[in-house]
Write a structure and sequence with these properties.
Blueprint lengths: L14 H11 L3 H11 E2 L2 E2 L8 H6 L13 H14 L10 H17 L12 H12 L3 H8 L4 H15 L8 H16 L6 H11 L1 H16 L14 H11 L5 H9 L2 H18 L5 H18 L4 H10 L2 H11 L5 H5 L2 H12 L4 H19 L2 H5 L3 H22 L6 E3 L8 E3 L4 E2 L7 E2 L2 H9 L3 H14 L5 H20 L2 H5 L2 H4 L8 E6 L6 E6 H7 L7 H10 L4 E10 L2 E6 L2 E3 L3 H11 L5 H14 L2 E3 L1
Parallel strand pairs: 7-9
Antiparallel strand pairs: 1-2, 3-4, 5-6, 7-8, 9-10, 9-11, 11-12
Helix pairs in contact: 1-2, 2-4, 5-6, 5-7, 6-8, 6-9, 8-10, 9-12, 10-11, 11-13, 11-14, 12-15, 14-15, 14-16, 14-17, 15-19, 16-20, 19-22, 20-22, 22-25, 30-31
Keywords: Metal-binding, Zinc, Zinc-finger
Protein name: MYND-type domain-containing protein
Organism: Favolaschia claudopus
Amino acid sequence: MHDLLKPGNLSRLSPKYQALAHASFNGSIPDFAQLRAYVVTPPGISPEWIHCLPIPFALLHPARIPRAPNRDIHNVDLAVEALTFLRTTHRPEAPAWPDLWPRAWAWIDFLHAHRKSYTPHSREPIWRFLLRLVGVWVTHPPTAQLIRNTAGVRRIIIYAWKAIIDSTPTFEPENLFVTLQLQYLSEFFRHVMDLKVAANFAEVIDEAGGLAGFASLVTRTIKFCIPGLREAYSIPQNSAFFVQFLSLMIEFEDVDSIHSALVSTGIVPVFTSALKAFSLSMANDPPANLCEKNNILCMFKILQDLLYVSPSSKSIADALGSGLLSAIVSAVVICKDFDKTHLESSPLCFLLANTLPTSTVYHSVVSVMNETLSKTHTIAMLSSSFKKSHLCNWWHFFVNLAEERIRIMKRIESKEEDSKKACYNLECGLIEKKEEFRRCSQCLYAYYCSRECQKQDWKDGGHREACPSIRQFRQKHHDLSPRSSSFLRAVVHQEDEHDRSDGIPSMAFRLAPMKENPPDNPLVVVFDHTGIGLFTKASTAREEREKDVNGEVLWDEHISRVQRSRGRMELHLIMVRDGKRKRRYMFPQRSKHSVVQDRLSDAAKRPDASLHDAVDAMFEERKKGEAIHE
């Protein structure tokens, strides 16, 4: 027991208080209330206060806790009076807090558990007593460690958190009462929440009503803390709670289940709006300090974690629609003084160099970019600070790619080019406008130029056997809408056209996989969009099939068709990023003639010295041909 808590300490009180103090120590509620009124007089606290600590220490003894509040109402009222007294706690008595905490917690836990059958005379909920105590006591490291190790404390803190958020529609800085409660809550988050400990995490999730309940609470908290997101870009001066709240969200970094639950509650547009508001406010105000700059980068890190949740294309589109590009431009200006190494290792750079560029293969993302990119790019180019930033080159890298994908999207939507199909009957292979074809009503994948070709393919081409597998596969992998699939097909086709324009080197790289490979292991051209920039390589069906652990490609059907195509089909595999994973989509290329594959096969069999002439001739033939992607 600390000396401040020993009964003899009461003798240090002024004589006029000693009688009240001894009566309070012996259980007189009126005397204790009167003593408290004397020593806790606004605007300050009397120096006598610290000598009264033996009273709450004695009255909060766990042995006084009854089985139920109505069994011993006097001791319960005394405990509430003692907790009320301790709410005026301050730093000078901090050494006594480790001894006070176990007793205060035991009573708070009891009173909260029986909150429906007992209400203090002040009508004040018990969680406010806890919030006030821990909000101050966690600043004392030994006491903070005790609180951190106390089972159940997070349960009541979550209850308090929900009560604060439910108390008023939005946070108003003028509401000093709520401001103070948020301040205490932020101290708890900062010092003792510790959600990386499994037991702590389980306690929080249980009180919040499961992952979905906790995610909903987080999303509602952002809306609560940052009012007027849609109307203005100014941030309340008292935004300290939100900043501390970010530290709590950082603890979710390795908890994928939390991120998924958060995204399902619609947090991405809400959080992006808050990020935009903070960024614009700091960019327009006097220069931000180092802490504020790091807070902005911290917010981008949190957003990046949210954008990792699959399907990431929806989250990225939501973020773009909520002002992500404006937030990026403002953040680049705010962090203009950071050195190149710091910036290029930041989440801000990762968004510009990886997340956003790799998302331009999705129609839904490019559609939103089309609405926001031009205006934001103009604003960025008008800022001298932005143009001097080390991230300006990465911005141009992203913008150039996005503009190229926007042109593809507009070309598809404007019908500048007729959508074409190749007859699925490999004995025919006719390439014509899509409108001229009929589709298999079962698998909804195979297109035919005539009823005769459809019958022939069903009878002799293997579609009778393949159709059920294709149908089951498409039912399982139905993540791409027809519009998204058409856009992705157009992206692959354009990449292949670029590949053609590269000349001989682009043809020659296909030769290595074709040497010494049997017909059941055909060439696969891989267009990898999962990293910084496009990476194209030649591989084999066997090699890529081994990597396809999730079975995202119907390999048997594609390999079989290549074997029967007589050189008029080449397998083109596109790899795209979906959050933390890579997704694979196969778009076989169909040609009217087999000359390209014939020349490739011929070149692969020749001595190295004669490869150049063979590839040169093959390339000239290829330029004359017509090819589409299924």
